[in-house]
Amino acid sequence: MFKTNVTWGEFRKELLESHNIKFKYVVKSESAIQRFIGWFMAFFGINKTYMTEFYTIIGNTIAVPSRDALPGEDDEFMTDKELRTYSHERVHIFQRRRDGAIKFYLRYAFSAKWRAKYEEEAYGTSMFVDWKLGADVYAWPYHVLETLDENYRIKRKLAKEVGGRLIELANHFEMSNFVRDIDEDLAALMDSKA
Length: 194
Known about the structure:
194 residues; mainly alpha; 5 strands; 63% helix
């Protein structure tokens, strides 16, 4: 995994603090609540890799799969995965603010349609980060389709629709105005680093 040329300090200042976002962090294995959620997800076959592979945001707290996944110091460069993952989680903060916390959490928990919509927006941002880093983004829709189907309890038909829309999104990344509609601050930061 290579390092981006975005530092943790730049990410915090330009993408979090400028929007009054103050993430708190917890390592899943060190949190009783997260261990319970992980057990629940595995026991009921919802998501067996919840504890080891997924970052989860509840409120402003990001639960990370290991200590290695905690953010670095301000002068450290982010890896591509860190920039992609934390940009994705940032989208969920904006969704919660846009829709209201109660509506967001109820929709996310109880509606596959809304869960798919929220993840489509967040994974669109993940794809954009990869595109700006020079990665091939056309494998993303298929990865997201499998992830939604296997780990988010979203039926395959709906997951395929999301994948199709993500392919359309990737086809428009080169149109800068379209990109700015996804996440203007993220686009501007990454443009300044190109």
